[in-house]
Model the fold of this input.
Amino acid sequence: MSSNAMSPDDSKRAYRRDLLLASLLVTSGLVISGLSLTVLMARDPPQMAQATQPLQSSPPDNQDKPAESKPGGDRPTTPAPEPARPDAQAQKAGAQPVLPPAPAEKIAPPINEK
Done:
């Protein structure tokens, strides 16, 4: 008769072997990570390549399209933007709102101050 169960000594030996293997794997992972970080820190600082701007042809004489924006400045618009809801004076003069009024279910009740 052969027994498939391990003796307590075999079980301890297998546990120690597994624990040793796991600790070796963790240690080797940490060593590789440390070496990688060392290599990365030892390199020269990364240099960024800057692409040149493409050559621009002369703009057409078409004035109907909006003006192009320029970095760092205000956004030019042609024609000038109009508010969605004209002010009270403009409404008296006959200006119509661009947007329809909001539906009733989208309007929240007034906030009561405490």
